[in-house]
Design goal:
alpha+beta, five-stranded mixed beta sheet, 23 helices, about 35% helix
Length: about 550
C-alpha cells in the first residue's frame, strides 16, 4: 500500500481480514471506511458527560476552539493526476520518478520513547530491520508495544487505569476511545495547543498539511490532545461484481426496488449464486439514516425516524425475496468477502477501502475479477443524501509531562511520520528501505520483499497521518475508478447534525442501543415486525432515551 488513507470497515471484520491474509497494506485502505460509518449508530465520544454539555469542536467552531487548533497550510509537493473536487481525495495514478525530501536533517535529539499501538496482522519482532532503519532516520528510538487490534479496547482501558504505566505515546482508534475518556484525558496526556495552535504549527510543515477538521476532531475537553489520522468523507458503498454483471447482461440498480429486482434475477441456488449479501449498513445509507435528526425543531434518534423505519422495511423485503445468500441470512458475515469473491453473491456493501483489499485477494486466482461501487441513489432513484464521515479515524496521544523538550522532540518525529505522498519520508514509513523491504517494478511501484511483508507495519503511520489521497497504483485503473466515483458522490455529501463534535455519552446510557442491534436482525429476517420496533422505541424513551435526547440537545447550539 502506497498511500495514507486508512480506515477498519463494517464489511468483513478485522479479525476476518487477518485470517484471510489481508496485510497491513490493505488495511491502510480500510481504516477510514469503518469510521465513516461509525457515526451512524453512535457518535464517537469525548465530552465529560457532566451537567452542562460542552462541545469541544464543531462545524461552527467556538472562539475558544478556534484558538487551539493549528493553522492549515497545505503543501504542494506532487501535483495530482486527478485534482480534488468538493473535498474528495486527489488521485495519483503513478509513483513520482523522484521523491521530495520534506524533513531536512535529523528530527530527533536521541530520545527514547515507548509507543503503544494496535495491529490487525502478525506482530513483527520487536527488534527488526524496519524499526532500526526508521529510528535511525528519526534520530530517536521508538520502542513499540504492539497489541492485538481485536482486543485493543480492553488493553487501552487496563493501561489508562494506571497512569504511572501509561507509555510515552499511545495510539487509540476512535472506535476504541474508552468510557469517560474525556474525564481522564487532562490528567493523562499533553495538551498540544501550547505547541501547535495557530501559526505555531509552522515549525512542523507536514503537520500543518493536515486539514483543520481533523485537528478540530482531535480536541478533547477544551484542549488539543490528539494527533489525527484523517479519514475519507465517503467511507462505504454498495459493490457489485461488474465482470459477472456484464456476462449476464445486467445493469447496476438505480433505485431500492431495482436493487431487489436485480438481486432476484441473479439468484439461482442450483448454480450456488445469490443476488445479495446482508446490506443493512447500505440500506441505512441509501435511506439517509443518521444518528440524530431535527424534525420540526425536535431532536429524534435514528430509531424514531421515518428513514430508519423505511430502511428496515426495505431490508425485510429484500430478505423475504429469497435473494440474500443463506449464510448471510444465518448471520455469517465473516465470510462475506469470500462469497462475493467467489461469485456466490454478486452484490454487497463494504468499506470503500475493502475494494483495494479485495483486488489483492481475488485477482491472483481470477484475473477477470472486477468489483465496482454503485453510484448512490435515494430509494426512489432520486438524489441521495450522504453523511460525511468522521474527520479522523485514529488518534495518538503524548503522555503528560512537564518536559517541553520531550514533547517538542516527539512532535518533530510526528512531523516526519506525517510526510505526504511523494516524499522520501513517506516512502520509508510506508514501504521501508528499497532493496531490503521492497523493490521497484517496471512501473516504479514498490513490491514488498519477504522481509518487507514480515516487518513493515503501520506502527509509525498510526502516530499521525497526512491528508487522504488515492494513490494505490498497484492495479491499473483502480485509482481513476475510485477517484471518479468519489467525485460523482461528492455533490450529495452533507455534514451530519453533530459533525466534528467529540461527544461522550454518559455511561448510564451505554446499553440503550443494544436491543436495536438484535431487533433489526430479527425484523430483517421476518422473525419480528415493525410493531416490535414501536415497542422498543417506547422502552428506549422510558429507560433513558428522552434523557439522552436532552443531553444531545445541549450540543445543538455549541
Amino acid at each position: 500500500m502506497l498511500g495514507n488513507n486508512a480506515s477498519p470497515e463494517r464489511g468483513p471484520s478485522l479479525k476476518e481480514l487477518g485470517r484471510a491474509g489481508v496485510g497491513r497494506r490493505s488495511f491502510l485502505g480500510l481504516v477510514g471506511s469503518a469510521v465513516a460509518f461509525a457515526a451512524l449508530p453512535a457518535l464517537t465520544a469525548c465530552s465529560s458527560g457532566g451537567a452542562a454539555p460542552q462541545a469541544t469542536s464543531s462545524a461552527g467552531m467556538s472562539d475558544a476552539t478556534s484558538k487551539i487548533v493549528p493553522s492549515y497550510i497545505p503543501l504542494d509537493i506532487v501535483k495530482p493526476d486527478i485534482p480534488s473536487v468538493n473535498g474528495t481525495a486527489p488521485g495519483f495514478t503513478s509513483i513520482p520518478s523522484s521523491l521530495v525530501k520534506s524533513v531536512q536533517g535529523v528530527p530527533g535529539k536521541g530520545g527514547s520513547y515507548t509507543v503503544m499501538t494496535p495491529a490487525w496482522w502478525a506482530i513483527p519482532q520487536a527488534d527488526n530491520s524496519y524499526y532500526r532503519a526508521v529510528n535511525e532516520r528519526l534520530g530517536a528510538k521508538l520502542n513499540f508495544q504492539v497489541s492485538d487490534g481485536n482486543t485493543y479496547a480492553d488493553k487501552i482501558q487496563t493501561v489508562l487505569a494506571s497512569p504511572k504505566d501509561v507509555p510515552d505515546w499511545v495510539v487509540i482508534p476512535s472506535w476504541n476511545l474508552p468510557p469517560r475518556f474525556g474525564q481522564a484525558v487532562k490528567g493523562l496526556f499533553t495538551d498540544l495547543s501550547e505547541y501547535l495552535a495557530g501559526d505555531k504549527i509552522k515549525k512542523y510543515p507536514n503537520l500543518a498539511n493536515i486539514p483543520t477538521s481533523a485537528w478540530k476532531y482531535s480536541c478533547f475537553e477544551g484542549g488539543l490532545y490528539g494527533l489525527p489520522f484523517p479519514s475519507e468523507q465517503v467511507g462505504n458503498a454498495f459493490f457489485y461484481r461488474k465482470d459477472l454483471f456484464d456476462e449476464m447482461g445486467l445493469e447496476q440498480p438505480k433505485s431500492a426496488d431495482e436493487y431487489i429486482a436485480v438481486a432476484k434475477e441473479i439468484t439461482d441456488p442450483a448454480k450456488n449464486r445469490w443476488g445479495s449479501e446482508d446490506v443493512w449498513t447500505g440500506a441505512q445509507l441509501m435511506h439517509g439514516v443518521d444518528s440524530w435528526k431535527l424534525v420540526d425543531g425536535k431532536l429524534l434518534s435514528r430509531f424514531e425516524t421515518d428513514e430508519y423505519r423505511a430502511a428496515l422495511e426495505w431490508g425485510a423485503k429484500l430478505f423475504a425475496s429469497g435473494a440474500v445468500h443463506p449464510d448471510a441470512v444465518a448471520g455469517n458475515t465473516q465470510k462475506m468477502g469470500q462469497r462475493f469473491g467467489s461469485g456466490a453473491s454478486l452484490m454487497t456493501n463494504d468499506g470503500v477501502g475493502g475494494w483495494h483489499g479485495a483486488l489483492g485477494l481475488n485477482l491472483p486466482s481470477n484475473p477477470k475479477f472486477q468489483m465496482q461501487p454503485m453510484d448512490f441513489f435515494a430509494p426512489d432513484g432520486g438524489k441521495p443524501t450522504l453523511f460525511r464521515g468522521s474527520p479522523a479515524a485514529i488518534f495518538s496521544f503524548i503522555k503528560k509531562t512537564d518536559d517541553a523538550s520531550k514533547v517538542e522532540e516527539m512532535l518533530a518525529l510526528a512531523n516526519f511520520a506525517a510526510a505526504p505522498f511523494g516524499t522520501e519520508e513517506n516512502m520509508l514509513i510506508v514501504n521501508g528501505v528499497e532493496g531490503i523491504h521492497y523493490t521497484l517494478d517496471a512501473q516504479n511501484v514498490p513490491q514488498a520483499t519477504a522481509k518487507g511483508t514480515a516487518e513493515v507495519t503501520s506502527t509509525y503511520a498510526f502516530l499521525v497521518n497526512s491528508a487522504v489521497v488515492n494513490n494505490q497504483v498497484q492495479y491499473p485503473g483502480y485509482v481513476k475508478a475510485k477517484t471518479d466515483w468519489e467525485i460523482r458522490q461528492a455533490p450529495y455529501v452533507v455534514d451530519p447534525l453533530f459533525y466534528g463534535l467529540q461527544i461522550q455519552e454518559p455511561s448510564k446510557f451505554g446499553s440503550l442501543k443494544k436491543p436495536f442491534d438484535d431487533l433489526s436482525k430479527d425484523i430483517l429476517r421476518g422473525r419480528k415486525s415493525m410493531s416490535d420496533l414501536d415497542a422498543a422505541v417506547a422502552t428506549w424513551k422510558k429507560n433513558g432515551g428522552d434523557e439522552l435526547r436532552e443531553f444531545y440537545a445541549g450540543f445543538l447550539n455549541a
